[in-house]
Specification:
The chain is 63% helix and 10% strand. It is an alpha/beta fold and 567 residues long. Strands 5-6-7-3-8-9 form a six-stranded mixed β-sheet, with helices on both faces. α15 crosses α17 (474-488). It is elongated, with a radius of gyration of 36 Å.
Length: 567
């Protein structure tokens, strides 16, 4: 119930007028449908009696007008209800996606690593789409039916109280008991179906992404069998849900039939007693029949309530109110200090530490180069400083030297893997500085040694890249990421083999750019090259056995020996 209440609060928080208008229009359309059937019943009965009595004149104007008006209102109301409720729902879901995406963007990297491939995308798409069911398929039809049933009881009470309370009581009882019973079944089966669908999706992803590994291990047939098993499970659950749906429809038919029988029985007795005319009995019967039709849509929506709850439980923890628009100007707020204090890190509790008792301080205007053998922990240290990994012991602190209210130092990370998107070169660059002018973009690409390449492209900076930056070479992709960092102007630069994959001439030019860009900034970088090491004021050396040492440029002999060992 907490999940349902939270979802309903979200619905009410946004476009409440539209949602209430949708219920109001649906209610008017339902009353028009009942009025149409009731008036038609009365009119048929009255016409028959007039014919039997041999009446010469019979007034058809008023009932005809009421029938036409009710039919038109019913048609317009149903159309209007669809337009209003669906428009409001789609707007709400679009806004909800922004909230969820904003919440995801604020998650720490350690939390993001808990999600499997495609899981967050599924929550942004399929799970949010599922949430439309609680309003369109549960709240709207249930509230409309309840209000209509109460209105029917009130109207029939004006003609004959026993008919009103007997028939209305049966319908009202069905409106209470049948949804409760359907909801219990829906929570159980809907959750199982949603969970099984998620398992099936993940197994498909594992098969598609790990085909080679599964073939090499001789496990591909086992993976296919697990997919088949999950699909069979979903099919069985859906068949069970369909069976309950058929039973529910039968119960609704029985409830409606019982209300009709009671109406006929009591109405017949009232007719014999002279308390009701024949046309009024037909009016009551057809009004109850029209009311029973409103019960049908409710049960199916409640059978899906489990999927809605499951989706809500996955979505709600990720939500965050979008932050107020902030000034995107990248101001220089002064020097920063990075303090690494007795940091210890291992990739698992069973594994030996890769980094052990590491301590150093890096300030703006300083550059530390990290060197060491493969697997010594160089890239791991960059990930720790960037917040992509968490140390088991010790701490890392990056702060402005002078207090800046609510401001965090900007951190720029250039790894061996470049993240580019299926957008234009310009849009990929603007991720670094959304307010950057065309002149600033041109300056950044020129400094990153991309000017010639971009001038050769038919659309220049408007050239659209493929998935993950397809269309650029590895070196061009890294320089695109470098241009983005130049626009972002980090306070702390974290670079992993910054000139890898570049020819000598381009590498020299890129190093000159980085030297200029980071001269007043803090720079921490991994290197295997002598030319890159020339940027450093200190060298952080990772040695075998988790040992490390910090060598300053003033230690000329050690420095020369270390640099000589680089490429």
């Amino acid at each position: 119930m907490k999940t349902i209440a939270a979802i309903l609060r979200l619905y009410w928080q946004h476009y409440p007028g539209w949602f209430m208008a949708g219920i109001g229009i649906a209610y008017v359309a339902a009353l028009a449908s009942i009025t149409l059937m009731a008036t038609a019943g009365w009119f048929l009965g009255a016409t028959a009696l007039a014919g039997i009595a041999g009446a010469v004149a019979f007034n058809t104007v008023y009932p005809g007008f009421l029938i036409r008006t009710s039919a038109l209102t019913r048609m317009v109301g149903k159309y209007g209800e669809r337009v209003v409720t669906h428009d409001a729902t789609f707007r709400f879901l679009a806004r909800l996606r922004l909230y969820v995406f904003d919440g995801i963007s604020q998650l720490p990297f350690r939390r993001l690593r808990d999600f499997r491939s495609g899981e967050l995308l599924a929550r942004l798409t399929a799970d949010i789409d599922t949430l439309d069911g609680i309003y369109l398929r549960v709240i709207l039809p249930l509230s409309t039916a309840l209000l209509s049933c109460l209105a029917l009881i009130f109207i029939l009470h004006g003609f004959h109280a026993p008919v009103a309370f007997a028939a209305g009581g049966i319908l009202l009882l069905a409106l209470i008991l049948l949804p409760i019973q359907a909801g219990k079944i829906g929570v159980k089966l809907g959750r199982q179906i949603a969970f099984s669908s998620e398992a099936l999706r993940l197994r498909y992803i594992d098969l598609l992404r790990g085909q080679m590994e599964l073939v090499m291990a001789g496990r591909i047939s086992d993976q296919v069998a697990s997919i088949t098993k999950a699909a069979s499970r979903i099919r069985d659950l859906q068949a069970e849900l369909a069976s309950h749906d058929l039973k529910g429809r039968a119960l609704i038919t029985l409830a409606g039939g019982a209300a009709l029988v009671v109406t006929l029985a009591i109405g017949g007795l009232a007719f014999e007693a002279g308390e009701l005319s024949g046309p009024m009995v037909l009016l009551a019967v057809l009004a109850v029949f029209a009311m029973s039709e409103l019960l049908v849509p409710i049960r199916r929506g409640l059978l899906d309530i489990g999927r809605v709850l499951y989706a809500g439980q996955r979505i709600l923890p990720l939500m965050a109110e979008p932050e107020a628009q902030q000034d995107t100007a990248l101001e220089d707020l002064g020097p920063v200090t990075l303090k690494v204090d007795d940091v210890r890190f291992a990739y698992s509790s069973e594994a030996s530490p890769i980094i052990n008792d590491l301590s150093f301080t890096l300030q703006s205007g300083e550059a530390i180069g990290i060197i060491g053998g493969s697997g010594a922990g160089k890239s791991t240290l960059l990930s720790l400083v960037a917040g992509l990994l968490d140390p088991q012991d010790g701490g890392l602190l990056l702060r402005y030297d002078t207090y800046q209210d609510g401001q965090k130092p900007r951190l720029g990370l250039l790894t061996q893997r470049t993240e580019l998107f299926r957008e234009s070169l310009k849009d990929n660059l603007l991720l670094g500085a959304p307010d950057a002018s065309l002149r600033e973009l041109d300056h950044a690409v020129e400094k990153a040694q991309l000017k010639v390449m971009i001038e050769r492209l038919p659309n220049g900076l408007e050239q659209i890249l493929g998935d993950e930056g397809q269309g650029l070479s590895g070196g061009e992709s890294r320089r695109m990421a470098l241009a983005r960092l130049l626009l972002y102007k980090p306070d702390l630069w974290l670079l992993d083999e910054m000139t890898e994959g570049l020819d000598k001439t381009t590498a020299v030019a890129v190093l000159a750019t980085l030297k200029e860009a980071t001269k007043d900034k803090a720079l921490l970088f991994v290197t295997h090259k002598k030319a890159e090491a020339d940027l450093a004021d200190k060298l952080l050396v990772f040695e075998d056995g988790q040992k490390w040492r910090l060598v300053e440029r003033s230690q000329t002999e050690d420095w020369a020996r270390l640099v000589q060992g680089l490429r």
